[in-house]
Amino acid sequence: MEEIARVYANALFGVAKEEGSLDEVRDQLGEFADALAESRDLQVFLFSPYFSSGEKRDGIAKAISGGNTELVNFLELLAEKHRMPAIFRIRRRFDELWAAENRHLEVRLTAAVPLDEGVVERVGDEIKRKTNMEIDLSSEVDPDIIGGLVLRVGNMVLDASLRAKLDRLRKE
Questions:
Q1: In this structure, what DSSP letter does residue 114 have?
Q2: Which of 10, 13, 39, 119 is placed for a possible disulfide with 97 were both Cys, Cβ 3.0 to 4.6 Å?
C-alpha cells in the first residue's frame, strides 16, 4: 500500500507543480482527506466495492464541485482504480513532497511544564538558522516526560527528557 501511495502522490505532485497549483491542491487534498476521515458514511461509499466506479466518480464530482480540476480528476481516478483507501497515505506523501519543495520543516517542542515564549522562539530561530528552512514551530506540555525536552524536527527526534534517561538507566 505504501508503494501505491508513493506512486500516486508523486504523480499528483508532478501535475500540480506543472500547473502551478501546489498550494491549492495540497489544501484541497487535506480538506478532502479530513472530511473522509470524519465521515463513516463517506468512507463506506468510497471504499466499498458495492458501489460502481461511475457512482463514486459522480459522488466525488458533486462533493468537490468547484475544486481544482487536477485534484478532482485524480480522486476520480483513485475511485475508478479502487485505490481510494490509500488516500491518507497519499496525502502524507504529498505533504512531504510539498514541504521539501518549499523548504518547510515541522518542529515540535515538548516539555513537562509550559515554556517561556522567548525560549521557544530562540529554539525555533536556531533550528531555522541551522537548517536554512522555513519552520512551523509548535510547543506542547506533556507532564509524563517529567523534565527536560523532547524536540521533533521533521522525522528526527531528540529526546532529552528525564523519562528517557530513567528508562535508559533502568535498561542498563
A1: P
A2: 13
